[in-house]
Amino acid sequence: MRERRAILRVSATYSLEVEVGDAVHRGDKIQTVPDTEEAVVSSVSGTVESIQFDSGNHEFVIVIAPTP
To answer: Which of 12, 16, 28 lies closest to 67, judged by CA?
Structure first.
């Protein structure tokens, strides 16, 4: 069974810790919120395939493709 791409939506208020082409593992930091202990982490492992900005929702839309 082939895994599907994961789509993560995170606030665009803060910068991302990942770029297109980066390998990520479940639990890796995707984004850190300054002045807090809060971090957004990846729920899946794979490669960051694309990052788009959704201006209507002020979010980054991150697509992670499964590792073959």
So the answer is: 28
| Two structure tokens written together for 40 | 């957004």
Tokens of 60: 């980054």
Domains of the chain: 6-65 (2.40.50)
15, with CB counted inside 10 A (0-12, 13-18, 19+), is: exposed
Sign of CA dihedral 39, 51, 61, 63: negative
Note the pLDDT tens digit of each residue in 41-57.
999 999 999 999 999 99
Does the pTM of the predicted model rise above 0.90? Answer: no
Cβ 59 vs Cβ 9: under 8 Å: yes
